[in-house]
Amino acid sequence: MAILECSGLTKRYGTRLALDRVSLTIEPGRIVGLLGPNGSGKTTFLKICNGLLTPSNGTVLIDGVAPGAATKSCVSFLPERTYLNDWMTVAQIIDFFSDFYPDFSREKAYSMLGSLNLSSRDRLKTLSKGTKEKVQLILVMARQAKLYLLDEPIGGVDPAARDYILNTIIKNYNPEASVVLSTHLIADIETILDDVIFLKDGTVTHAAAADELREKNNMSIDGLFREVFKC
Amino acid sequence: MEFSFDADRPIYIQLKERVKIKIVSGEYPPGSQIPTVRELAEQSSVNPNTMQKALSELERDGLLFAQRTSGRFVTEDAGLVENLKKELAGTEISRFLKVMASIGIPPDEAAGLITATKEEE
Amino acid sequence: MLGKLLKYEFRSTGRVFLPFYGALVVVAIVTRILNSVKPSGRVGLIAPQLIGIVVTALMLGAVCVIAIILTIQRFNRNLLGDEGYLMFTLPVGTDSLIWSKLIVSVVWFLLSAVFGLFAIAILTPNLTREILKGIGVLFRDLFGHGAARDFSTVIYLLSGVLSVVWAVLSVYTAGSLAMLVNRRRGLAAFGFWIGITTVAQIIGTLLLTWATHIDYSAWWNELSYGTREVLGSLAVCATALVGSAALYIITRVMLKRRLNLE
Q: Which of A96, A123, A148 to substitute to test the interface with C, most C CBs within 10 Å?
């Protein structure tokens, strides 16, 4: 069964159409890039898949089920913003995740903390923005979810951490799970993508395997992106 | 961590080339077992699916064969490997000669330059 | 899952309340000790006692304010702010999220009342003793006049708790309705809250008028005193219940179908 299947997904904010009849399918075991400029609807799409937003029209099914408490236990979402609270320490937020998500692995979380040289005793309030983002990434990747939705995971991070994030995604690869990465920094990530979806003003303009697009257009995905989204 | 792929060309083709080089150079000797898809993907920092596609095609080409539970092995057909070596060398030589030609050095002169450079080293 | 949410909610709010309760009790005790020092006529000795009383009173006021602020903050910041991205992706139902905050808020309000009374009791032992005696009399007056009276008294107490529930829900409903606007949500929430309380007041007045009307009607006065007591208390309770349910439903619909985190 497809991990994600949406059909005619539309989201309207007043008169503005953020998503316009988006239909796509994501099979398990794929690393998918959701590519588009800012404001193209990527975040809106991810929020709908998470149940954080209700669509104006159309349906989306995660593993055959509409977004709800059940799908949330198999979807791991990394939003663009920091959602950590103030008063907990890193260790406490790990406990929190461990408490609520049965698929959360503390060993993985602590091992990643170690690789990134972060202390579990720091208070979340005192961390820099970059460090908070790393912590959030660890919390998301330490889960054994069926669908990982990462909204701009490499945006505000330094290049070394960027490599670490991409390598973690590769290492975590599981033929039964899929990763959807939304970003506008394509050159940095395109070598790890299986499939690519271009989102322009809420519509899907391209949805194909990355290498297929490379062969057909004789250029990198980054190059194709620049062409499609020329200003 | 190798992120040095040319994104203008399909990644799986580049992965095939790299494995071919390893076979031909003897890094993966004939009949030996190569690392798993996951290990190779991690080493090259690529998507395991892409690596899988590359290896499957090499299997189809006869350079690798899969043993059901044990993994993938390099072909024992030394002749095939030898042919591949010649093919890769040929491609490289053609490319070299084309560059030489573009700077105005005909093939014979190029060959002479090779011998001279080799003796210097 | 609700249990887990409750645990974290109590932990997060307890960090603020418990030290405050502790400080409140300490201040009350210290003031009480100071008070028991006989004044020797020198003005200097009166000052600490006065300060003690003032500080205790201020802290009592502060506890109320904190309870209100935390109710607002926990809902608006933890659910509708950035933290909402965490809370709403947890594998819990919307109802659990609302209930966890509602229960914890109401508990703290009730506990604050208890601690407040406790502090007052420490400060004014004689007065308190008299008041307790009076309450004892009041209780005997309220209860023990038959099952109908006992029952209706309990129902009235329940209505009291429900009114706290209603007040908390009014904050939640106002906050969730504010998601309908895109900017200046804080102001919108306040506006909605004024709207909700105004509507409630209007409805309340209408109901009271209707109740007074009933009080004068013939069929009502034909019922026994006990029956009238019970019906009266049930009516009050039902109003509080219906009002709370209405607010809960609105909040739930907003959070489930019209969730719009910034």
A: A96
A13-42 pLDDT tens trace: 888 899 999 999 999 999 999 999 888 899
Judge whether C162 and C241 are in contact, CB under 8 Å.
yes
Q: What residues contact C261, with CB distance under 8 A and at least 6 apart?
A: A47, A52, C80, C81, C84, C85, C88
Which range of residues forms the domain containing residue C165? 143-262
Same domain, yes or no, for C78 and C154?
no
Whether C3 and C133 share a structural domain: yes
H helices present in C178-262, as ranges = 185-216, 218-222, 225-257
Mean pLDDT estimate for chain B: 87
Domains along chain B?
Answer: 11-76 (1.10.10.10), 79-120 (1.10.287)
Pick from B111, B7, B16: which is nearest to B57 by CA?
A: B16
Rounded CA gap, C158 and C163, in Å? 9
Say if residue A141 is exposed, middle or buried (CB neighbours under 10 Å; 0-12, 13-18, 19+). buried
Candidates C80, C86, C260, partner chain A, best to mutate (most A CBs within 10 A) = C86
- pTM comes to 0.87
B105 to chain A, minimum CA–CA distance in Å? 30
